[in-house]
Amino acid sequence: MEEIMVSVIMTTYNHERYIAQAIESVLRQQTSFRIEIIIGEDCSTDRTLAIAQDYQAQYPEAIHIIRSEENVGWRKNYRRTIAAARGKYIALLDGDDYFTHRKKLQMQVDLLEQHPDAGMCYTRSERIDEGGTTTIYPESECYTSFGEMLRRNPAENCTVVARRKLVERYYQTIRPEEHPEWLTDDLPMWLWFATEAKVVAIDCPMAVHRVLRQSVSHNPDYRKKIEFVDSLYDISLWYDEHYNESRMREELLTSKHNTALWVLSYNGSIKEYITRWHRDITSHKPLLRNIASYGLFAKKIGWRMWQKRG
Questions:
Q1: Over its length of 310 residues, how does the chain's per-residue pLDDT go in tens digits?
Q2: Which of 158, 144, 237, 160 is nearest to 197 (CA)?
Q3: What is the rounded CA–CA span in Å between residue 81 and residue 152?
Q4: Given the DSSP bridges, would you call strands 89-92 and 134-137 parallel, antiparallel or unpaired?
Q5: What is the rounded CA–CA span in Å between residue 115 and residue 198?
Q6: Quick one: DSSP state of residue 213?
């Protein structure tokens, strides 16, 4: 039987409304090589598993389902699904996202085959919220250097194809399960790839990422939003320390501080704003000179007065 070139890793939980579109978008891929879909189903309480099993019955050679009798959580589900991959390359696609370009995998594999020093290829994506509003991500250029990626994650999960052996080495080397404070497993993976190999990008949207209201990365609760963004900066700070001699520490700490205060300038109490400001300057004194935080505080006062007047 022909060797599998790409394993599409699809983790899913309660994606009854979306899982069929995700699977179909992979089945419609036009490639010159064999693809497998590995679905990590984490004890959904809706019909996600039943829908996945229907597709598995139709495509038994292409679709494999990883499941257990109890919910294992996103991190373990992600890891066990990747561990089952057999392809030379791994493509990532959460169960609520989908591919849009029919030659996405072919184009990415071709690029990686042409550049053996490259470990990861990503594309732009379309972000669609539950109201139907669409934006292109990333909004600016497609960054590929380690330093640029420390500043901001340029790649949605659904756009990435990476060499499987590199992914396996990531888990052996970084051991993300030992970092429960990291609330995502994609940014630390991308950053490690950038220290080990080239990252290449295709400047074209080829997948859709759904921005759902109730998710770790997109949460209407401003405290949860701050917690997630703090985690992203903490990941970058860890990599900056371990792989970049902390050259960007000052910049990253300032961005982390300003991002949290920007959210708090619209949400929460004045006391909450001051508490976060004080906590940050206590742990890093140079932030006292950060003019932006005082401007955001003035905006906070003005915003609160406008709300009371309204």
A1: 689 999 999 999 999 999 999 999 999 999 999 999 999 999 999 999 999 999 999 999 999 999 989 999 999 999 999 999 999 999 999 999 999 999 999 999 999 999 999 999 999 999 998 888 999 999 989 999 999 999 999 999 999 999 999 999 999 999 999 999 999 999 999 999 999 999 999 999 999 999 976 655 566 799 999 999 999 999 999 999 999 999 999 999 999 999 999 999 999 999 999 999 999 999 999 999 999 999 999 988 876 666 666 5
A2: 144
A3: 26
A4: unpaired
A5: 9
A6: S
Please report the DSSP string for 81-94 in residue order: HHHT--SSEEEE--
Task: Output helix, strand, coil percentages for the chain, rounded to the nearest 5.
Answer: 50, 20, 30
| Dist CA 105 CA 8 (whole Å) | 10
At position 9, the amino acid (one-letter code) is I
Cβ-count burial of 214 within 10 angstroms (0-12 exposed, 13-18 middle, 19+ buried)?
Answer: exposed
The amino acid at 7: S
The answer to whether the beta carbons of residues 206 and 123 sit under 8 Å apart is yes
pTM over 0.90: yes
Is the Cβ–Cβ distance between 69 and 94 less than 8 Å?
no
Task: Give the tokens for residue 229.
Answer: 């963004």
Residue 181 identity: E
Placement of tokens 């109201």 in the chain: 131
DSSP 135-191: EEESSS----SHHHHHH-----GGG-EEEHHHHHHHHHHH-GGG-TT---SSHHHHH
Q: How far apart are CA 93 and CA 91, in angstroms?
A: 7
**Residue 134 burial (10 A CB sphere; 0-12, 13-18, 19+):** exposed
Residue 120 near residue 143, CB atoms below 8 Å: no
**β-strand partners of 40:** 11, 66
Beta bridge partners of 149: none
Residue 287 per-residue DSSP state: G
